[in-house]
Amino acid sequence: MKVLVTGAGGQLGRALIAKAPEGAEVVAATSRELDISDRAAVPAFVRRERPGLILNAAAYTAVDGAESDRERAEAVNDTGVANLVAAAEEVGARMAHVSTDFVFDGSASQCYAPDARTAPLGVYGATKLAGERRLRPGDLCVRTAWVYAADGENFVRTMLRLMAEREQLGVVADQIGSPTSAGDLADALWRLALEGHAGTFHFTNSGVASWYDFAVAIRDEAVALGLLPGAAARVKPIATSEYPTPAKRPAFSVLDTGATSAALGDHPPHWRHSLIKVLEQIKTHG
Predict the structure, then answer these.
(1) Would the pTM of this model clear 0.90, i.e. be above it?
(2) What is the distance between the alpha carbons of residues 208 and 239, in angstroms, rounded to a whole number?
């Protein structure tokens, strides 16, 4: 099957290309090669390539930036999805789309199921939710959270850099979620899409953590691997109120992945195990 991967230059897009199964003819389109917000470019590109499946990893992900640039966030996260769906309909393709835990407000006391009430706190979450609503009943939507990889700009790479530069870091300890390896997410997306699953699914790595917990684990595992010196920065827990940001974040955004585990026949790896694998990749490849 020919598969169009949009957002191929991002960390998830690169992981999707690297994890492509045998038999998938991948057409990789970065945002420069295909701006999904371009209403004329999208159908022309899709008509030319005629994929059977579109994996949409393109997104405006600057959570704080979206608060002051709503127009661009809507253009990519909402209108861009509408453009892809219309083009997919024209050539008879299915869509697999990636969304976010930010569609929830974080007020729950238990994991969010795929059919839980949505209530985004900011522009980013609102535009991603609007994009979800563009999908057809036979399309696939996979919500995820706290995604990182060995390359690109993400929390793990930022922590490694700051820990090498500073004596102490303050990291938020009252926001709870599930760190997710882009490689593990890519594996799940391929399987769900190619096995024909439709509707909304959740995928993250197993286990939960605060950003503080995640940062401590990054430090400890990086020291063990020799990526950081033993005297690397100490990590101090702080409250969200001590680190104000333009966008409000959900305090609790753990996603219920039970339906995904049932569909795939196994459970996602624990986030700490996947973190070690990613840090080993960074050690090997830089």
Answers:
(1) yes
(2) 18
From the list 273, 271, 256, the residue with the least C-alpha distance to 205 is: 271
Our answer to whether residue 124 is catalytic in this structure is yes
Tell me the three state secondary structure of residue 140: strand
- Structural domains in the chain, CATH included, are 2-145+182-205+253-269 (3.40.50.720)
Could you tell me where the beta strands, DSSP code E, fall in 132-274?
140-144, 147-148, 168-172, 176-177, 180-181, 199-202, 209-210, 234-238
Q: Look-up: residue for tokens 């979620």?
A: 177
* pLDDT averaged per 10 residues, the chain (length 286): 97 97 95 96 98 97 96 98 98 98 96 98 98 98 98 95 94 98 98 97 98 97 94 93 95 97 96 98 90
User: What strands, in cross-sheet order, belong to the sheet with 140-144?
Assistant: 25-29, 2-6, 53-56, 94-100, 140-144, 199-202
| Alpha-carbon gap, residue 126 to 102, rounded angstroms | 8
Active-site residue identified among 112, 124, 148, 212? 124
